[in-house]
Amino acid sequence: MNNLSDLAKYAAALVKANEVYLRVKARPNAAKTRFKEIMADETIKIDVAAPAVKGKANQELIKFLAERFAVSKNNVKIISGAGERVKLVKIAR
Questions:
Q1: How does pLDDT run across 51-84, given as a tens digit for each residue?
Q2: What is the largest CA-CA distance in the chain?
Q3: Which fold has domain 4-92?
């Protein structure tokens, strides 16, 4: 699976279960925040247009995911990996 239209399955899971967990591989310092691809293990690669300094990249990632999944930023939590590139993110409705 690496087609970004497959992200719809995560949105559907969010609607059905009121929460979804995503494994995200973030790439900070990108020119623009955007989805790159879904890897074979279902990790979602995301370019983040913020430096990995003082939580700025994590804040940008949370803002981006909240907008894409139409939820409040307060409903997007980094469960693990806040200081790493690979993170476990919970999105709730």
A1: 999 999 999 999 999 999 999 999 999 999 999 9
A2: 35
A3: Conserved Hypothetical Protein Mth637; Chain: A; (3.30.1200)
